[in-house]
Each structure stands twice: as C-alpha cells, then as structure tokens.
Amino acid sequence: MKSYTYYPGCSSEATAVGLGISSRSVAEALGMELKELEGWNCCGSTPYGSLDELEAIVVAARNLALAEKTGLDLVTPCSSCFVTLNKARVHMMDKPQLKAKVNEALAAAGLEYKGTVKVRLLIEALMNDVTVKEIASKVKKPLKGLKVAPYPGCQEVRPRFGFDHPENPIALDSIVEAVGAEAVSYPSKSKCCGGSAVIAEEGLCLELMYKLFDDAAKNGAECMVTPCPLCQMNLDAYQAKINSKYNTNFNLPVLFVTQLIGVALGLKQDKLGLKKNIVNPNKVLAKYL
Amino acid sequence: MEKTQSMSFVKEVSQVPGGEGVNLCMQCGTCTASCPSAKIWEYTPSEVIALVRADMRDVVLSSSSMWCCLSCYSCTVRCPRDVQPTSLFHALESLAVKHGYKPQNTSMPVMYNSFVKSIKKNGRVSEFQMMMGYYLSTNPFSALGMISVAWNLLSHGRLPLSARKIKGKKDLDLILKKLDDVRGDQ
Ligand code: SF4
Ligand code: SF4
Q1: B1 falls within a domain
Q2: A191: how many CB neighbours lie within 10 A of its CB?
Q3: Mind listing the pLDDT tens digit for each residue in A173-213?
Q4: Number of domains comprising chain B
Q5: What is the pTM for the complete model shown?
Q6: B33 contacts in A (CB within 8 Å)?
Q7: How far apart are CA B56 and CA B33, in angstroms?
Q8: Cα B145 to Cα A287: distance, rounded to the nearest angstrom
Q9: Which range of residues forms the domain containing residue B25?
Q10: What is the pLDDT of residues B84-124, one digit of tens each?
Q11: For position A198, which CATH number holds?
Q12: What is the rounded end-to-end Cα distance, in angstroms, of chain B?
C-alpha cells in the first residue's frame, strides 16, 4: 500500500463534501493510504493571487513546507488547489530571491520550504500509480450502458501542470471506460464553466454552462463527471436556474469522478456522498447501486 | 516593487510574478479569440496587452478588463509566444489593488476581497462568509437571486454557516505578519 500526504482543500469539506467523502473511500478501496496533512490552511486560491500574489504564495508555501516534512507526495482531490500549490512551487523554483523571502516569513513559525515535495492530483495518482487496469480489475458492478459526459474542467488540463491534453483531454474518458460506462464525446468538453466568476458575473457563466449541458445532452449523455469541486458546484447548483433562464429541462446529475468509480467498485452510497448531489443521481444509477 | 515615476509601466508589469512575458506579445489576437469571457471585457485580452506596452498605466489599472478573466488558461496554452496571458492578467489585478484602483463595471474584486477576508479569518475559505461579505458590500438585494442556489447547497449539507478555524491559525498569522516586515520592494 503506497502512502501519500493528503490535502483535502477547503471545498472538500463544504460545497464539495461529496468529493471529500468519495475520494477517501475510493483511495482506500484501491490501496492508497491517505494521511491528512496536519494543520493545513487554504491553498492560496486564484482570488488570493489576484489581490496579492506574494501573500498567496506564502499561504501556499506553508502547506508545502508542512508536507515536505512527511517525505511523501502530496495529493489533493481538488483541481484548483492542485494548480495553486503547483504555481507557488514553480514561482519559488524559478525565483530564488522570492523563495528566500517566503522562507523568511515561514521562519516566523519555524518552517522552511526546500522545494522537494511533489504536488499531485488525486486522479492523476489513480491513473499512474494505481493504474486504470487495476481500477478495471476491481470493478464489481460494471456501469454497462451508462452514458457519461466527461468534463475535466480547465484546471485539470490546461495550466502547465496538467497531465492531460489541454485541448482534447482524454484522461477522464479512460476512467469512465475502465468502470464499464460509455464516454460520450461532445465538442465543448474542454470549455470553461465560468468558475468562481458565477457569483459576480452570473449571466455570462449561465450561458457558458447552458452550452455545456446542451452539448452533452444532445450527444446522449445521461450524466456528467468531473474531478473539479467548482465545476461540480456550478453545474449542479445552478442547473435549475439555467433551466428557468433558457426554458430547458436539463436533468443531468453531475458526479465527481471518484463517486462514479466508487459506484462501480460497489461501495455503499453513504461512503460516496451521493446524497450531497443536488440533481439526484439515483435514477440514472439505480441499476448499479 | 514600489511605484516609481521613472519606471515605465511595462517594466513595472514585467517585474511582478506572472507579468514576465509581457514583452513577448506579437499581437496575434489568439488569446482574445480563445477567451470565453472576451465579450464582457472593457478592452479585449490582446488589447489590454497592447495598452500595457503603450504605457497606458491609468487606463489599464482602472479598467475592469482583466477582472473578467475566468482563469481558464485557454489563452495560455494557445499563445504562440508563451506570454502566459492568464498570469499576466492576475499580475495586473494585483498591481491595480496595490495602487488602490477600483474598477467600475464589475464586482469581481469585491468578490475576491470577501474571499480572501474569509481565508484570513479562519485559515480556510468559508463560502458562506464569503458570499455574505460579497452581498453586503455590493447590493444586498441581489442576494435574493441567490436564495435558490444557496438553498440547494444548504439543504444538501454543502454550505456550513460557520467555518472551523484551522489548527495552525496562530502560525499562519505569525507568518503573514512577518511577511509584511520582509515584503520590501518585491
Ligand atoms: S496570444 Fe499571445 S502573442 Fe498573441 S496576442 Fe495574445 S498574448 Fe500576444
Ligand atoms: S484565462 Fe482568462 S484571459 Fe485567458 S482565455 Fe481564459 S478567461 Fe480569457
């Protein structure tokens, strides 16, 4: 059993609690030992970087310095934390002066960041360490006949740290297929849902999401899967609003990819946080639960 | 880095983390063509870069443009010159904040602010506190439009009303306090 330092990220304990619950259960079932990073703080996040880049890097670096002490790779289920922590890591690697300044600040709490810790996305570790083949071999309830639209979200694929193709992402498809479901292809798969801007620029974001749903539904999808807490929240919590704005009746459950894997592994519903989903997935999953 | 009258704006931008690529732009427009939010930008992504290069400091920093960036990184993966526009726009945002500019046509900075406030208070984000802060400092009545969404989250146990403070909150405070002392001209 391989061990990892686990960094849940803020949303895994709140708006994306289904991601937190299912990540832990699936990792356990697949033989990954996740040891939660003690005393972790917010990763720094995109908004933080927009207001004060240096401070955002310091906030991220505290997590990295704590994680470094464990000597294990850090894995996070959150695409956005994954990017933010990696961005801070690369900034400090490229600019020794910046790193020195960050370390001066960290020293106030007796910490030092050296630059040795690896920051990884949970599904990347699932694909590369556990392997898709191994996941497939542990499937107890093949999701045969289920049509799934994979939605990687921007942060998994595009910022330099991605492990997937930035314009034509396929990582999620291989997981969807490994658990026996059918990955639906649809043209807007790699387009943005609007992210956190949905609060301040709702009109634009509803339009972006409408296009995603329209496209996925037209291509026969019965549900969507994503690794990203922000995409999931947007697509799940705003789906009703989109229906009333565009006079549509989309009813597409939006699952975390770890929830989908968990169903196929035969894990119990409450170990996957399925009740936390707003668009109820029970109907499309009924055959497999 | 201090604002110095003698330093050109483009130089100032190139020295902020993320702004390094500004001089590489060849104005091909790929970023603008790839941008899912370009239509709500006051100046399009490539125009913003042209304005920086033309040293239009005030025009750029007071603009709402870069605040409309969704951080989707489409421009970054497509830019033929590796300008890294996404990071560049974040760098412009942080310069605007640092120099006290408040853009008129978007409430994105206000949203970001309530986000960071919530992090500083608890060491973690509380989406509920973030939203409350945002609506109280913009238009409390617009929160009414959010009730259905907030209820969706709340009724599914996804919107804790209070945030747990993290274990290392004291340490984080010490670190951020120290940062203010050592920040210097970075
Ligand atoms: S894509 Fe790159 S080179 Fe082209 S206009 Fe945008 S920033 Fe400049
Ligand atoms: S990262 Fe920002 S500027 Fe670039 S394409 Fe996406 S929204 Fe537009």
Answers
A1: no
A2: 19
A3: 999 999 999 999 999 999 999 988 888 889 999 999 999 99
A4: 2
A5: 0.91
A6: none
A7: 23
A8: 37
A9: 9-98
A10: 999 999 999 989 988 989 887 777 777 777 777 777 777 77
A11: 3.40.50.11810
A12: 5
